[in-house]
Amino acid sequence: MITIEKLTPADRPAWEELFRGYLAFYQRDEPQQTYDLAWERFLADDRIHALGARLDGELVGITHFLMHANTSGPDVCYLQDLFTAPEARGRGVARALIEAVTDFARERDCMRVYWMTHETNATARLLYDKVADTRGFLRYQIDL
């Protein structure tokens, strides 16, 4: 059975391992400061949030998300990161995390939950195409 809950201080090592796996998937290598700052923000749980998925008590999935203002209606929720340990894939972990973020946003009267993934992330897109609609937007970015 999958359980979803907020992360606790005791989850730090398992969370960091999962987050490093997520960033490695996207070929990113971040300094330790990135993990320390993110963890601090997740424990504060005010501007950015994190949930963990457990199977048999073991942390096997994480999601990071935030709510923000929307110029054309109620606030929206951005699901920024989602990662499942390789050994737990195909067991409903990612779907349960998406549902938990959706419930969180719904309880706060958000108008939508949205996220992005790389076009080559075919495995994740199989799930995403089942639980959400794609609207055809392209992402542009200016690094600072």
Automatic annotation (TrEMBL):
Give the source species. Kitasatospora phosalacinea
Q: Which residues cross the membrane?
A: none
Give residue ranges for domain N-acetyltransferase: 2-144
Listed name of the protein: N-acetyltransferase
Q: What PANTHER family does the record tag this protein with?
A: AMINOALKYLPHOSPHONATE N-ACETYLTRANSFERASE-RELATED-RELATED
| Keyword annotations from UniProtKB, A to Z | Acyltransferase, Transferase
Pfam families in the record, alphabetically? Acetyltransf_1
Q: What is the lineage of its organism?
A: Bacteria, Bacillati, Actinomycetota, Actinomycetes, Kitasatosporales
Named from the GO MF annotations, one term is: acyltransferase activity, transferring groups other than amino-acyl groups
Entry keyword annotation includes Nucleotide-binding: no
- Record keywords: Transferase included? yes
